[in-house]
Amino acid sequence: MRVVEIPAFGKPEVLRLAERPQPQPGAGEVLIRVRASGVNRPDVLQRKGHYPPPPGASDLPGLEVAGVIEGGDAAALAEAGFQVGDRVCALVAGGGYAEYCVAPVAQCLPVPEGLSDAEAASLPETFFTVWSNVFDRGRLQAGETLLVQGGTSGIGVTAIQLARAFGATVIATAGSEQKCQACVELGASHAIHYKNQDFAAECLRLTQGRGVDVILDIVAGDYVAREVECLAEDGRLLIIAVQGGTKSSFDASLVLRRRLVITGSTLRPRPVAFKGAIARALRERVWPLIAAGKIRPVVHRTFAAADAAQAHALMESNQHIGKIVLTW
Prior knowledge:
- Strand 8 (145-148), helix 5 and strand 9 form a beta-alpha-beta unit.
- The chain is built from 12 helices and 15 strands.
- Helix 4 packs across helix 5.
- It is an alpha/beta fold.
């Protein structure tokens, strides 16, 4: 099968097409004939040598795929309600940049009716991540306010739509007027141009000094101090990436007085049982909203798999709105 591999760490140009043996599914696993592979920020970090795959995972990049079931553990497939020939999308710990990919059956979801392969491949990584963090860890409730840092990232466009669908008010940050407008069109009540405005001051102004209930943060670094300042009482800060750096200094007395929670997580190394529980929640509570058109995938651009380097270069340029996808 054809794959996109990382023969050496470096710039996007190190990515190359290669031939490898087709993987074989084991117990509880399914073999997917991949038609599209989602491109995500962790893939870029892995290409640079900063995000190694967990033990036992493929060394190929790629955390999400969409395609057709070719085979696998018959009992596990039957228990999950799948059969050979079904269109599915799946979250994987690696190996997604390939024509065939093995995935745990528990991490597979049916492709919502009406979606293309590219749209389906854009769903798993961000939807699993946002659900696990914003709704499970962050306990976002209807009537609360969510601040989404990086509203036009893959994570951002998903978080805005999910939070809005479940009754929360959304404030998003973005780096241009065009991106701010895109956030509003996706459902954010307010969008803050972070290059021109202090997001913490704006959040306090927009909430009449109360602050926001939950923050989804992909930046960390010096953002954390300002995020602590604009959290409401009993607020929750969810750190899921550290694009702004790993070191933070903040006023701990605010954490005490306002009873704040600062937490973080990475999804890739978590066990199949944990990810499977997220998949079940998504299938029950979110997939019907996608099928009804109330939440939609946002695919900025697709590339042929042979052009994976161009896809990575686009992601690093930060010019995209939504997801980038490879097609096979």
